[in-house]
Design brief:
With 652 residues, this protein is mainly beta. Among the domains are: 66 residues; 114 residues, Lipocalin; 109 residues, Heat Shock Protein 90, CATH 3.30.565.40; 89 residues, Alpha-Beta Complex (Actin, Chain A, domain 4). The chain is built from four helices and 54 strands. The strands form 13 sheets. Strands 2, 3, 4, 6, 45, 46, 47, 48, 49, 50 and 51 form an eleven-stranded mixed beta sheet that branches. Strands 10-11-12-13 form a four-stranded antiparallel beta sheet, with no helix packed on it. Strands 17-18-19-20 form a four-stranded antiparallel beta sheet, with no helix packed on it. The two termini are 30 Å apart. It comes from Paenibacillus donghaensis. This is DUF3298 domain-containing protein.
Amino acid sequence: MLRIRLNELVKADDSCQVQAEVWKWDGIGWNEFITQQEEDFIRAEEELFVTIPAEPGLYRVDYSSRPLEQLFGLPEAGEQGLLRSSILHPAPFKLKDGTLWGYINDEGKVVLEPRYDYAEDFQENGQAIVLLGNNNGLIDSSGREKVKPIYSFIAPFSEGRAVVSDARGYTLIDEQGKPVTSARYDYLNSLQDGRALFSKQSTTSPSRYGYLNRQGKEVLPPVYEDAGDFKDGVALVKIRSGEYALIDPDGRKLHTYKHPYVGNPGEGMLAYQAVENGKSGYLRTDGSVAIEPQFTAALPFMEGRAVINTAEDYGNAYGLIDKQGERIIPAQYYEVQQLGENRVALGTPLYPDQPYRGSRYVIADAQTGGVLSSHPLLGVNNYKDGLASVYDAKETYFINTSGNRAAQPPVIAGSGTLSRSGNLIRADVDQRTAYYDLRGRQVWRQNGVILLRPPYSVVEHKFKPNNDYLVYYPVVEGIADNEVARKVNHRLRKVSLAEGAGSGAQEFSYSGDFAVSFFRKQLLVLELTGYRFPYGAAHGMPTRIYEHINLRKGRFFELKDLFKPGSKYVEKLSEIVGKQIEKDPQYSYVFPDTYMGIRADQPFFVDEDALNLYFEPYEIAPYVAGFPTFRIPYAEIMGLISTEGEFWQSFH
């Protein structure tokens, strides 16, 4: 790769920051963004570099400077006890073993090496949830296991307890990882006000709900048809059809409501329907009517206001009312989001004839209904400490309570969110993670180069022609023959669908990414994933392709290349997969009588010990089963494998 120093192009000044971007001409326009490993903004007196791939093409470097602003809005270290100097931050790393998560400190240095399939923030008790394989566990800040990875799910701790689940059901554990419930439950919520909502289901009756205490004891038996969490010492439960009650932690009925529907309380108000499937209004907690039924949807009150909908036939006409039912914001918006700190986001469809394609938002004062900022935003998050993370058609940044862009950096090209992480700001933008200090200096970013073995590496390139199309595709570097390298990378870009989008009418959104699935000797296996979502569809369709590349020759292997010429590998592999479906309980989800054997070009991938065959969603199983995969150890099919063939020899 070619590295270019840019400091001479921009006047050095202690009071400014410099930004640089590299773009490549793709034959149509400057549409290909070249990911840089350096931070987006650095002080001008520091060294600023950009890197350009070692492949022919036209490249453009854009650079600009901006003054350092006075920063505000986020409390400094020590204020309100919000910051801890020892906090660690979860960070993803792209490696030759796939994407793994570790932890960095405030300086961006790796403290816990990347070894987890996913990692969450450390909680107040000093423990973090991590994923290893398909199981979750808990670690402390030194990386020691506090709870072994044996659970399919672990919720964050609440009141010293965490909800976990495994094949037997749900239970509560304490901070030492010890279960505190003697039974397992079909459903279990986190502790709230000393009570955890649970449900049990029998073969003779539907589910009933009850409550556990902190010691895991069933203090309120499962007798309720429905129930909500405790908040401010009360919870709403459904006694029977047409009868609800507000109870205290001991199960005493404080108030009873005889209506077809009553919603959870919010600031002393409960949404209700006087007629089944009729209009909604609001009750006071004593059961008296506060606002007569007149809305097709009525959400809980927050900061003295509630979002309501007046549209018929499942339409959208949302507005905002006060506790007297007076309209603060007229019911004419496709969306109204309460953001906290007396602010709301008002959403209107980007495309009026296709409202499901998303909204544009403006910020309004929730007390007066007045629009504060009409700049169109495409994504808005809640306010905290006077700031909210937003993104528009170009950038992700913070806004202040006036609805305008805040002085608090960073400002990042792309769509995503910014969030506080101890002394740092975490940026999750365009499906990539980075961390910044409070002055906007980037201290860490997710790597875009995967080092394999000299001279080989895989470099991440980004293709984003519009906000509904984002692909990260691989470019293999180190192949000796330039023409071979060009052909390899041209195919990878093509199968990644990193071309031809964004120039005309697009009826779907698409995201694509890649990972190194396996690398050994001269064999590189790349996993290319995608998700295509047609506008207005119930769900999208995922795709998965594995490319097996001989790095020395640039050849892409097919399944047949693994086996001896003339061998009946299709019949043998079909038989093995059929037996797994028949005998292995993990494949009980396969549709009956749908499996008819594998194809000669069956999708596959190899690893060190086995051949893996997989099927597309819906092909032999429900959508939720994803890509049914069948692992076949080489030892089971060694007689069929061409051990002297190029495919086998490339990684043996």
